[in-house]
Write a structure and sequence with these properties.
The structure is a single chain. The chain has 166 residues and is of the alpha+beta class. The chain folds into two domains: 3-51; 57-165, Pleckstrin-homology domain (PH domain)/Phosphotyrosine-binding domain (PTB) (PH-domain like, Roll), CATH 2.30.29. Helices cover 41% and strands 34% of the residues. It has four helices and seven strands, in the order αααβββββββα. It has helices at 3-26, 31-50, 53-59, 149-165; strands at 69-79, 82-91, 94-99, 108-112, 116-124, 128-136, 141-146. Strands 4-3-2-1-7-6-5 form a seven-stranded antiparallel β-sheet, with helices on both faces. A hairpin with a 4-residue loop joins β6 (128-136) and β7 (141-146). α1 packs antiparallel against α2 (31-50). It is elongated, with a radius of gyration of 18 Å.
Length: 166
């Protein structure tokens, strides 16, 4: 699914939920229509934000040793209760996150592949199957919200097995 379709669908679902809430709370007949339209507009704004040159520049990484990027995508790094927005990159030797500057907790994070002990899943809000937990050898747990978490896990495990074989 393309990024614009994902953004509009996310906005539409959000708008419908808010519209339902308003329809039941305030007994407003047009709340579902207003919620849907607002959700679509929100989705378009979200897409415009994600594809802006500023955000792309801020979340771009450089691989100083020329290592290829195996996988990359938009992600939230969950720190305490904040989902810090940015991009997650998987290189042949490390997992790297780079936030954009529109967050409260701006940061970058690098985890060497050989220091990853376990990769598991969790559901955001207990419902949405998009969470990835990286546990390091020292017991640190880093949570990410990603698209296609199974692919991320498979690719990280594949790289880990290559390191073990070497």
């Amino acid at each position: 699914m393309t990024e614009i379709r994902k953004s509009i669908l996310a906005g539409l679902v959000f708008g419908l939920i808010i519209g339902l809430f308003q329809a039941f709370k305030s007994n407003i007949n047009h709340a579902l229509i207003a919620g849907s339209i607002s959700g679509i507009v929100f989705g378009i704004i979200l897409y415009s934000f994600m594809t802006s040159k500023t955000v792309k520049r801020q979340t771009q990484i450089e691989s100083p040793d020329g290592k290829p990027i195996v996988c990359s995508g938009w992600a939230n790094h969950v720190i305490n209760v904040e989902g810090v927005g940015g991009r997650l990159y998987l290189l042949t030797d490390k997992l790297q996150f780079q936030s954009h500057s529109f967050n409260i907790q701006n940061h970058g994070l690098k985890i060497d592949i050989e220091k990853i002990k376990d990769i598991s899943f969790y559901n955001t809000l207990g419902l949405i199957p998009n969470g990835l937990v990286i546990t390091t050898l020292d017991g640190q747990k880093e949570k990410f919200v990603v698209d296609n978490r199974r692919l991320w896990k498979e690719e990280i495990e594949r790289l880990k097995s290559k390191i073990i074989l070497i």
